[in-house]
Design brief:
There is one protein chain. This protein is of the alpha/beta class and 448 residues long. It has a single domain, classed as Alkaline Phosphatase, subunit A (3-Layer(aba) Sandwich). Helices cover 34% and strands 12% of the residues. It has 14 helices and 16 strands. It has an eight-stranded mixed sheet with strand order 6-5-7-1-8-11-4-12, with helices on both faces. It has a two-stranded antiparallel ribbon with strand order 2-3. A two-stranded antiparallel sheet has the order 9-10. Helix 2 crosses helix 8, helix 5 runs parallel beside helix 13 and helix 11 runs parallel beside helix 12. The chain is globular, with a radius of gyration of 23 Å. The relative contact order is 0.20. About 7% of the residues have low confidence.
C-alpha cells in the first residue's frame, strides 16, 4: 500500500484504520445488517440513476501546477513549469497536464472556489461535506461534524444488486464518514490493490481455496441443519431468524452475477488495463468505472501525497504524467461506453497552494504551502458542458477574483446532479433539524 503522507504525518494506512473503525468491524455482514435496518425505516424515492467518481487529491494540489498556471507572473510565483495550450482557445494548463489538455473540450474547470480553512482537517471537512467546521479544527484532525457527500448519496440513492452504495478506495478520507446518518452509511473500503494479480474484494469473494462446489455444499448442509426446530419459531421472534436474513444477503451478494462481474477487474481486456495505467490508482479508477456501471452511486478514489511543502516540481514531474493520464482515460472510456452522461468525474483536494514558492527550514528543495483562497476543480459528466473554465484568480493566483464560489456551491452541484435536494432538512438522532447545505445554490455553468 502507498504511504503518501501529508505534513501532519498521516498516511493512507491511518485513514484506512479510521474507515474500518467507522464500519464497526468493517465486514460486509455488518454493513448489510445496518443497511437492512435503514431500508425498513427510510424507503428510497425513485431517482434518476446517476453516479459520482470523486478523485480526492489529499494534501491540497497546487492550482499553479495543474489547471491555473501563471506564465506572466514573476519566477518565484510561476515556478519551473511551462504553460501549455489546451483545446479551449486562450486557456492553458501546466506542462504535465498533456492528456487532459488534449481533451479539455470534454470537461469543465472551476478556478474560483475558495474558503477560509487553510489546514487539512478543516479544509477536508468543508470540501467533503459543504459544511464548515463548527469549532476550531487542527491541521491533522479527523473530523465529522456533518455527513459527507458519499454518505448522503448512500442514504438517498441506495444501490441495486445488493451492492454497497458508497465505496472508498483504498481508504476513507478523514471527513468521508456519515456523522449522524449512522455507520450503515459509511463507505465500504476496498483496501487491496486491484493491480495485484491476486486482487480480491474483502468479504465479497469466496475464501481462498474454497471452490464453488464446496461452498454450495456447505450452504446446503447448513440449510438441512436449519430445518431442525429452532429455540422458538418466527412468530415468537427468534433472533436467529433475523441473523439468517443478514447472512442470506451476504450469500446472495457473494453469488450475485452482477456483483461478481463488477468486482472482476481481471476480466477487463489487457489493452484497457494498460490504458488506465498499471498502477494502483489506474486500476482503482477502472474498478470505479465498473462499480458505477453496476449501479453504485458514489465512489471515492482517495489519493494522498499532494501536500508539497518541498520538492513540488520534482514531485509533480514524477507523478503527474501517469496520474492525469488515468483521469483522461476514465473520462474517455466513460464517454465511449455511453455512461459519461450519467457519471460525474470530479477531481480536487482540500485547497490550493501558496503563490510564492519557498524553501522550508531543513529542506533543500522548494515547495508551496497551504492556500485556501484559490483552488482548481475538474468536473466532467452528468450533462456538464465541456470546454469551459469557470471563474478566475488574479494575475498572480493569490485569490479567486471572478465568479467567486464556495464549497457549498460545489457540494450543491454534486447533489443536484445526483437528484438530491441540497436544501433538504435532515434530523439528527436527537431530533435536531439540520440543513444538508446552507447555501443550496449549484454552480449554474456546470448544470447544463
Amino acid at each position: 500500500m502507498s504511504t503518501h503522507k501529508n505534513c501532519e504525518g498521516f498516511s493512507r494506512r491511518d485513514t484506512l484504520q479510521l474507515g474500518l473503525g467507522l464500519l464497526g468491524c468493517g465486514g460486509l455482514a455488518n454493513l448489510l445488517r445496518l443497511q437492512a435496518a435503514a431500508s425498513e425505516a427510510t424507503p428510497l424515492a425513485p431517482r434518476k440513476p446517476t453516479s459520482c467518481i470523486l478523485i480526492w487529491m489529499d494534501g491540497g494540489p497546487s492550482h499553479f501546477e495543474t489547471f491555473d498556471p501563471k506564465p506572466e507572473a514573476p519566477l518565484e510565483i510561476r515556478g519551473d513549469f511551462e504553460a501549455i495550450d489546451t483545446k479551449i482557445p486562450g486557456v492553458q494548463f501546466s506542462q504535465y497536464m498533456t492528456r487532459l489538455a488534449a481533451i479539455s473540450d470534454k470537461f469543465a474547470v472551476v478556478r474560483s472556489v475558495c474558503h477560509n480553512q487553510a489546514n487539512h482537517g478543516a479544509g477536508n471537512h468543508y470540501m467533503m461535506t459543504g459544511a464548515p467546521p463548527r469549532m476550531p479544527v487542527g491541521c491533522g484532525a479527523f473530523v465529522s461534524f456533518h455527513p459527507s457527500l458519499g454518505s448522503v448519496a448512500a442514504y438517498e440513492c441506495g444501490a441495486p444488486n445488493g451492492l454497497p452504495p458508497y465505496f472508498s478506495m483504498p481508504s476513507i478520507s478523514r471527513s468521508g464518514g456519515p456523522n449522524f446518518l449512522g455507520a450503515k452509511y459509511a463507505p465500504f473500503v476496498v483496501s487491496d490493490d486491484p493491480n495485484n494479480a491476486n486482487f480480491r474484494v474483502r468479504d465479497v469473494a469466496l475464501p481462498s481455496g474454497l471452490a464453488d462446489g464446496r461452498f454450495l455444499g456447505r450452504r446446503e448442509l447448513r440449510a438441512q441443519v436449519d430445518r431442525m426446530q429452532r429455540i422458538a419459531d418466527k412468530a415468537a421472534g427468534d433472533p436467529v431468524n433475523t441473523v439468517d436474513d443478514y447472512y442470506r444477503q451476504g450469500y446472495n451478494l457473494v453469488t450475485s452475477v452482477e456483483a461478481q462481474r463488477a468486482f472482476d477487474i481481471h476480466s477487463e481486456p489487457e489493452k484497457t488495463r494498460e490504458a488506465y495505467g498499471r498502477n494502483g490508482f489506474g486500476q482503482r479508477a477502472l474498478l470505479a468505472r465498473r462499480l458505477v456501471e453496476a449501479g453504485v452511486p458514489f465512489v471515492t478514489l482517495y489519493e494522498g501525497g499532494w501536500d508539497h511543502h518541498s520538492d513540488i516540481f520534482g514531485g509533480f514531474a514524477k507523478r503527474m504524467p501517469a496520474f492525469e493520464n488515468t483521469i483522461a482515460t476514465l473520462i474517455e472510456d466513460l464517454e465511449a461506453r455511453g455512461t459519461l452522461d450519467t457519471t460525474m468525474v470530479v477531481a480536487l483536494g482540500e485547497f490550493g497552494r501558496t503563490p510564492k514558492i519557498s524553501t522550508l527550514a531543513g529542506q533543500s528543495k522548494p515547495g508551496r504551502d497551504h492556500w485556501s483562497s484559490a483552488m482548481s476543480i475538474l468536473f466532467a459528466g452528468c450533462g456538464t458542458p465541456g470546454g469551459q473554465v469557470i471563474g478566475a484568480t488574479d494575475r498572480n493566483g493569490y485569490a479567486a477574483r471572478d465568479r467567486v464560489l464556495s464549497p457549498e456551491n460545489f457540494v450543491s452541484t454534486i447533489y443536484r446532479k445526483l437528484g438530491i435536494d441540497p436544501g433538504k432538512i435532515y434530523h439528527t438522532a436527537q431530533g435536531r433539524p439540520v440543513t444538508l447545505v446552507t447555501d443550496a445554490t449549484p454552480i449554474s455553468e456546470l448544470m447544463g
